[in-house]
Structure formats: structure tokens, C-alpha cells
Amino acid sequence: MKRKTPIDAPHLWLVLVRCHHALSHIAGSSIKDTGLGLTDFVALEALLHKGPLTITEIQSKVPLALGSMTAAVDRLEKKGLILRTPSPEDRRAKVLKLSPKGRATVKAAFARHAADLETAMAVLDQREKRQLHDLLKRVGLFAAAARAAPAAPERT
């Protein structure tokens, strides 16, 4: 279905918002169905894919408030899903790593989550997924740079 009329930025933004809303609902339900809360899932997923990290390092990868992340780490440690070990570089910091139970839990949870998202995006083939990824990343980086750029002085 090819359209000849140009698509303006406000319309494209609306399509992105609606798509984000629909996929967020699927992702949220998928995570909820694992029995983990969003913050717990995100922390465990970061440790699964990035290896041992400090709370600060997890936060640099995941946009969550420090208080939320600290509470999640406390919960996960209490459940026996993560271990806190002293940091070799900084005596004040603790390095978090998955326990064997935590690794098994997050691997199963992530596999289900990934399968749910794959199902939601089955309308796209691999080439289209790559193209969408590249375009969204390009727009996101451009928008972030534009937001970070100083505003032009007003003319009077």
C-alpha cells in the first residue's frame, strides 16, 4: 500500500506514539506474566546481557530513578536472585551479579518476553526490522542532538 501524499512530522509522531503504546502494553503484560515487576525485570535483564555491574552502571543503561533501582536490588537480593560483591576498583561500591537461581529466572523470563515481542512484530521480516531499527535510531539521535543544542537567541 503505497501512498503518494507526503506524511508530515506530526502525523508520523502520532503513529509512533500509537505504536509505542500498543507495544508497551504487550511488553508490560509480558513482563507482568513472568512474576517480576518492571524494575526487577530490567535490573535482572541488564545483568544477564551485560554481566556483573554496579547499581550506577545499571542506571546508566536503564532509565530508572536511583531509589527504584536500589529498592529493586534489595528485593532481588532478598529473593536470592542476585549477589552483591565488593568492587575491586572502589571500596564503597558493590558489584551486582546474578546468582544461579537469578540466572535461571531471568533467562526463562526474558525468553518468554522476547517471544511475546517477536509475535507482536511478526508483521515485519528481518530486512524490515533492520530498516525500522536504523530509521528510528537515526531520528532518535537527531532529536536528542537537537534537544541538547543551545537555543538560538531571539531576535528583537
Query: Total number of β-strand segments?
Result: 3
Helix and strand content put the structural class at mainly alpha
Strand content: 5-15%
Strand order of the largest sheet: 1-3-2
Describe the structure.
This protein is mainly alpha-helical and 156 residues long. The protein has helices at residues 9-33, 38-50, 55-61, 66-78, 100-120, 126-148, and strands at 53-54, 82-86, 94-98. The protein has one domain (10-119): Orthogonal Bundle (Arc Repressor Mutant, subunit A). A hairpin with a 7-residue loop joins strand 2 (82-86) and strand 3.
SSE blueprint:
Layout: H1 9-33, H2 38-50, E1 53-54, H3 55-61, H4 66-78, E2 82-86, E3 94-98, H5 100-120, H6 126-148
Antiparallel strand pairs: 1-3, 2-3
Overview in brief:
The chain is mainly α. The protein has helices at residues 9-33, 38-50, 55-61, 66-78, 100-120, 126-148; strands at residues 53-54, 82-86, 94-98.
Q: Which tags fit this structure?
A:
156 residues; mainly alpha; Arc Repressor Mutant, subunit A; 3-stranded antiparallel beta sheet; 6 helices; 3 strands; 8% strand; globular
